[in-house]
Give the backbone structure.
Amino acid sequence: MPKIIPIKDLKNTSQISEMCHVSEEPIYISKNGYGDMVIMSVELYEMTMKRLNMYHQLELSENQIDTGKTTDARESLDNLKNKYAI
């Protein structure tokens, strides 16, 4: 279940920092009862960005497959072997 805290609680910076490092998901900050911000640890942020990059790369790969912009792996290896006399 996501943690939601009011913006006034941000003044307790060390407590918020600890909460971010213990939590394995973002913490939502509300202002006047509405969502305002999201905070998370650097580790969680980096992991999230890596995951998003992986999804982006998979999408690009799927698009290349769909549009026929791929070559057979054995054919590519044979071409490299011939090119470099391996």
